Amino acid sequence: MVQRLKARFGDAIREASLDRKQAIVLIAVEQLREISRYCRDEEKFDMLVDLTAVDWPKREKRFDVVLNLYSFAKNERLRLKAHAGETEPAPSVCEIWPAANWMERECYDMFGIVFEGHPDLKRILLPDEWQGHPLRKDYDILKQDTDWVRENLGIESGQ
Hints:
Elements: H1 2-9, E1 13-19, E2 22-28, H2 32-41, E3 47-55, E4 63-71, E5 76-84, E6 90-91, H3 100-111, E7 115-116, H4 141-153
Parallel strand pairs: 2-5, 6-7
Antiparallel strand pairs: 1-2, 3-4, 4-5
């Protein structure tokens, strides 16, 4: 499968490895939608199990956007990863797997990653007026919580 991906997408396939019989493929973020569509249609990865992110604040492209896919037909899993910079959008995969809708909103809410083409990208877990993105490693959750509680509830935080 990795060879077919490399033949089809060339340099957009940055690296590939195998971990416990699961292929892990690092791809160019700008090709995320096209590679995802190929994986669904041609490689039969019909289920998006999870879409999440990892923050690497000291790296130039600080985020890993991670998609965990499953093929019912082949009983296989595939992990797609793409590095994205702090202000670099990632293409939405909602049109490919509708389940991505809320997962992309969660990544936007918690990490600040913008998913280009998402039909309704807005916070999903935190209030609209919340400042910042709590799963970034440089985020001070105690200060944010104290400020939000004081402003919105009119009390001092119990933190």
